[in-house]
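Class prep. Protein, please:
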Amino acid sequence: MNQDIKICTLKLLPEEKSKEAYEKAVKENPANDMREEMHALPEIFEMALMKFKKWEPGRKLRVRFLDGAPDVQEKVEKYAHEWEKYANIKFIFGNDPDAEIRISFKDKGSWSYLGTDCLSIEDKNEPTMNYGWLTSDSSEEEYSRVVLHEFGHALGCIHEHQNPTTNIPWDKEAVYRYYQGPPNNWTKQQVDQNLFRHYSRSITNFTSFDKKSIMLYAIPNSLTLGDYEVGWNRTLSEMDKQFVKEMYPRTQEGIFHTNTEMHERAAEPNDPII
């Protein structure tokens, strides 16, 4: 299973944009303001919790393609709309120069900015999401897997394998060898950041690890100790569906509370590590 494993990385804002991004998130959705809860403006490492990077429920997010073949664009749009069945969000595809989500296919990897961080990318010709390996020949299963995943990031979801409750028995030396080589060519620091790091329990609400989540990539047996693996998830899991309904409710009755059985897949890579 570990042949040519291509996984995305969250596209992160530079630290100097953290305060600006927080202010824009609060302007977009006042529910993102956590100053009263924290009794002060949060420090940089606390600014990008996913629950504070949510779009306003009911939002119509404009999406524009910066490049790419028409048939590839059509398939990306097709799968992006799947999230709308469960979240109170609409993706409006078109050529609006002020689109919040801007998609390119030119970069090598697959990535997206997290939730309202898209608003801090002020150059309207700069992408906020990229699909580096989707082509006209890519399978429908690959489109479903990758597009649902990246639009999950655009809604504010982090990678499920970094859930605080996750206890994957990684064979770290094997993981370093694999991901430091092609097609990913990551540094050791990037491997640590994108695979091994867990987000702090103190700043996230969570329950058990969801092995079926679209926000989880395949974990081959060859990269773990013992007999542990996860296959490719290509559709939204039942927990994904319920979670995004809670995150983007259609009525105020559905607003997410800390005692919910769904966890908030949230955090920024500068959060405390457990």
Observations:
- Residues 172 and 223 are 7 Å apart (CA to CA).
- The longest strand covers residues 60-65.
- The mean pLDDT is 81.
- The beta strands are 9-11, 60-65, 90-93, 101-104, 110-113, 129-131.
